[in-house]
Amino acid sequence: MAAVGIADHLETDDYIFMARIAEKAGRYVEMANFMDKFVLTSLSVGIDLDDEERKLLDIAYKNVVDPLRSALSVIHSAQQEDEDRIDDFVTVHYQLQLHRELNEVCGSILKLLEDLIPVAPCAESKVFYLKTKGDYHRYMAEYLTGYDQTVATFDSRAAYKKAQDIAFTKLYPGNPLRLALALNFSLLYHDILKDENHAWSLAKKALEELDFLPDLDSQSEESYEDCTDMIEALRDNLIKWSSDKQVCEQPLSDDEN
Question: Residue 64: which of 38, 34, 39, 44 has the closest Cα?
C-alpha cells in the first residue's frame, strides 16, 4: 500500500508502536502502512515477525479489505434485486473502482508474503503466511471472473494446501491457526469452487480430530478463546451447509488427508 509520510521516518520499534496507536484510532489503512514498513525493515536485517507482529499485520489488512468485500457484496445484491442496474454505467463504474481498491490491498500484502514465506524459520510462522496468502487470493477470486478468477482460485488452493501439509505434521489439531486454516480452506471449496461436499468434509475432519485431544482448557486464555471461536465457526458452517443442501460424507482424496 502507498506509504503515509510519517511512516518513512521512524525507527523499527516505532512502527509497531504507531501501528498499535492506529489500531486503537481505527485508522487501519495507516496501520497497514506502518506494518508494511516494519515488515520491510525486519526483512532487510533477516528477522522474522513474532506472533504479536503477525497478528498486527493480519488485523491491519483484514480491517482494510473487509469493508471493500462488504461493499462489493452490497452492490452485487442490489444488482440482483434491480436487473436494470446490472449494466448501469454508474453502478459498474463504482464496482470497478472498488475492484481496483481491493486488488491494490490484496496485491500489497501478497507482495510482502512472497518475501516472508521463504525465510519463515518455524512451522507456525510459515503456516500463518501461507494461510494468509490463500486468504487474499480467495478474496480476489470472489470478484474476478474468467481466467483471472481461475488463476486466483488456483493460487489460493495451492497456498492453503502447502499450509495444510505443514500444519498436519507440525501443529496439533487444537492449534487455533490449524483450525483457522481448515475453516478458510473449506470456505474456498464452498464459496469459490462450489464443491459443497469437499468443504463439508474438510470442516468436519477438523472438528473430529479434536475428539482425541486432552482438555483444551490447558491452553492460554487467548489461545483458548481463538480456538473456541474457530470451533464455533466450523460448527456453524456445517449446520448451515447441511441445511442448505443434503450432503453426503465423502472421504478426502489422498493428497488432502
Answer: 34
DSSP 82: -
Cβ-contact 60, 23 below 8 angstroms: yes
What 3-state class would DSSP assign to 147?
Answer: helix
Residue 190: DSSP 8-state: I
Residue 188 near residue 160 (C-beta atoms within 8 A): yes
- Express each pLDDT in 192-241 by its tens digit: 999 999 999 999 999 999 876 655 555 666 777 888 899 999 999 999 99
Per DSSP, 191 falls in state I
**83 contacts 110 by C-beta, under 8 angstroms:** no
Radius of gyration of the chain (CA): 19
Q: What is the pTM of this model?
A: 0.88
What stretch of H or E contains 26?
none
